[in-house]
Design brief:
By secondary structure, this protein is of the alpha/beta class. About 40% of the residues lie in helices and about 20% in strands. It folds into 2 domains: about 1-105 and about 260-363, Isopropylmalate Dehydrogenase (3-Layer(aba) Sandwich), CATH 3.40.718.10; about 130-255, 3-Layer(aba) Sandwich (Isopropylmalate Dehydrogenase). It has helices spanning about 15-30, 45-50, 60-65, 90-100, 125, 165-180, 195-210, 225-230, 245-260, 295-310, 315-330, 350-360, and strands at about 5-10, 35-40, 70-75, 105-110, 130-135, 150, 155-160, 185-190, 215-220, 240, 265-270, 275-280, 330, 345. The two termini are about 20 Å apart. The relative contact order is 0.16. The strands form 3 sheets. Strands 2-1-3-12-11-4-5-10-8-9 form a 10-stranded mixed β-sheet, with helices on both faces. The structure holds nicotinamide-adenine-dinucleotide.
């Protein structure tokens, strides 16, 4: 297998602690599945600002451009609240996403049956939940022109523009169908086509794209209904594809169905499928340095990277099975209530050990 390069961005707060565990896991599958991966660690976020005065140094951006995939920990923290806005860690992340053209945001919401009680919904509604929300990330109302606040007839008026051209819809649609193909082959396109012209076009293009994916079942749902269905019967979904605004809201709602922020990975992909993979959670300043952060969201981000960018599904399966196994065996980090039925509270490193042991046991 040819050599492929992964750039690792530990970042701030718990970032370095959780990334260290993901790197251990990657090292093991790299050897056992002969993946030919090499990794380069780069400065990013507040850590880079502290050292060189920029959250996204030129060398880091150049390395990310050359890399096949990027694995990030987390960035930010109260220490940087006083930094100039354009030099804050979040700016580094926004800059990286836009420089790399990462237009497709994947947010899985999974709930291991053993963790169903962490959800705010009834166990039978969420146990075994496994859905993927694909959100368009670089277009729509967050970027559309014209936008602004101006005075018209003596009154201040605020306005934004929800706009998509057909190419933008087509590329996110194609990504949605490809992801559905790698999962349960069902894609639900969420829009508001009964009210918005932009959604009418969205729906037309999705139907057109579907012709190239006859093996995937396409359905459509209005966003208000999708919000209801997510809290009524979330297990009906396989993959949801939607626009920037709708995806922003629905993906956070879906994340909360799982009730455990330390478990959720994410990805942002470009047109070639190269991606930035990171846990959904932030840098958790309140527990930084204590060695108790849950590394599973980051380990699962690494497994998404293997599946969606590096096309190494056997290695991804091995990691995901190992994570399921450690959850089933009762290992819990402090963010998830332990000790109820003989569950074991473990620290960050011990959770990494448990995942590695489960990978070896499954090999
Ligand atoms: P947060 O996600 O960092 O933390 C929220 C709560 O969840 C905290 O109590 C934290 O201890 C807990 N938590 C988060 N991840 C955990 C893990 N892996 N294991 C155990 N517990 C975990 O959100 P916040 O406190 O609102 O933000 C803190 C900083 O992170 C801010 O500077 C924010 O801007 C930044 N942030 C960064 C990203 C990113 O890197 N992409 C995302 C969100 C927030």
């Amino acid at each position: 297998m040819s050599n492929r390069k992964i750039v690792v961005l530990p970042g701030d707060g718990i970032g370095p602690e959780i990334i260290a565990q993901a790197q251990r896991v990657l090292d093991v599958v790299n050897d056992s599945f002969k993946l030919g991966l090499s990794t380069q660690v780069c400065m990013f976020g507040g850590a880079a600002y502290d050292k060189v005065g920029s959250p996204l140094p030129d060398e880091t951006l150049a390395a990310c451009r050359e890399a096949d995939a990027i694995l990030m920990g987390s960035i930010g923290g109260p220490k940087y609240d006083a930094a100039p806005r354009e030099l804050r860690p979040e700016r580094g992340l926004l800059g990286l996403r836009s420089q790399l053209g990462l237009f497709a945001n994947l947010r899985p919401a999974m709930l291991y049956p053993e963790l169903a009680e962490s959800s705010s919904l009834k166990t039978e509604l969420v146990a075994g939940l496994d859905l993927m929300i694909l959100r368009e990330l670089t277009g729509g109302i967050y970027f559309g022109q014209p936008r602004g606040i101006e005075t018209r007839d003596g009154k201040r008026v605020g306005f934004n523009t929800m706009v998509y051209n057909e190419d933008e819809i087509r590329r996110i649609g194609q990504r949605g169908f490809e992801i559905a193909r790698q999962r349960g082959s069902r894609l639900c396109s969420v829009d508001k086509a009964n009210v918005l012209e932009v959604s009418e076009l969205w729906r037309e293009v999705m139907i057109d794209v579907a012709k190239d994916y006859p093996d995937v079942e396409l359905s459509h749902m209005y966003v208000d209904n999708a919000a209801m269905q997510l809290v009524r019967a979330p297990k009906q979904f396989d993959v949801i594809v939607t626009s920037n605004l709708f995806g922003d809201i629905l993906s956070d709602a879906a994340a909360m169905l799982t009730g455990s922020i330390g478990m959720l990975p994410s990805a942002s992909l470009d047109e070639q499928g190269k991606g930035l993979y990171e846990p959904v959670h932030g840098s958790a300043p309140d527990i930084t340095g204590q060695g108790i952060a849950n590394p599973l969201a980051t380990i699962l981000s690494a497994s998404m990277m293997l599946r969606y960018t590096l096309k190494e599904s056997a290695a991804a399966d091995a990691i995901e099975s190992a994570v399921s196994r450690v959850i089933a065996d009762g290992y819990r980090c402090a963010d998830i209530a332990a000790g109820v039925r003989g569950e074991k509270t473990v620290n960050t490193n011990e959770m990494g050990d448990a995942v590695l042991a489960a990978i070896h046991a499954g090999a």
